[in-house]
């Protein structure tokens, strides 16, 4: 065998109705998902949505209540965790404190009975790849958080696993290190092409790392798609919120003509575009989603969607982040390119194609 293999050995991972309940509470509703070999898929959702439950089911740490896990067509959900041979990287790195970096990375290969010379070669190669060559003789306690996380990643990669599971691996790192390790993970994934499932509640992390995202809401899939698909076409308000639509306004439909809808409340009247093939009618309650970047202060004579009072103004260099309140108490987040002070009366403008209208029940989720 050569060194560390540069491509995934996995054809596909398929989840068929994978679900998990704790007593009467269903933490994960039946999940169907096919992951191609070499693909990087992020499970994204707020705390408690079932991400860790899904990952632990995959790892074999938690039995399924129903459904199947298939690796290249072979069922593995009844296989014990250590026999699945998956790589695991969690937020607490779980390194052996009394072993050196080198010994930590070599541990799994040793347990597997790989010949000594081969262990040495593979460990050195992986340590070089994660840029820890100079630290190989140290103990975990002598390393920074980022370096420890790299050891945890090296330990997973060296086993050439068919699948790598990562659960919030960067959440214990400070902001600068998170960014650095994020590009490190991206680089390693590009180099090795390891099939990876990555759990996070951070949409920026998910968007920047993953080939595809699975957005979970209360144990159910809201939408599955590429970063661009989710960013451009969120299927429901929950996904929209994750994709930066900070303004989710509950409004009543005044008129609907085709996909174009006018919805209003006191002090706020918006024209937006209906998402999907949902049909809305006059008088119906809808949710209108708009990104703060798409709300601006109206120029003289420009059509306005709302009159509001600026309440919170934050300085962010060239633009100000403003939170304004309408007559009905709706909060609107917007960006201002000119001076605004708390208490100023401002008129707001939004382009109709930038406002997404979700009817009750939302649009159908992606496949
Ligand atoms: P976080 O980001 O906070 O870790 P998560 O999305 O990973 O959240 P899970 O840990 O998968 O969420 O939990 C999903 C739901 O299942 C939660 O409502 C949680 O309270 C519940 N849950 C998790 N473990 C158990 C358990 N052992 N017994 C009962 N309920 C549980």
UniProtKB/TrEMBL annotation:
Annotated source species: Actinacidiphila yanglinensis
Keywords: ATP-binding, Cell inner membrane, Cell membrane, Membrane, Nucleotide-binding, Translocase, Transport
Protein name: Carbohydrate ABC transporter ATP-binding protein, CUT1 family
MF term (GO), any: ABC-type transporter activity
Superkingdom, taxonomy of origin: Bacteria
Positions of the ABC transporter domain: 13-243
GO CC terms of this entry: ATP-binding cassette (ABC) transporter complex
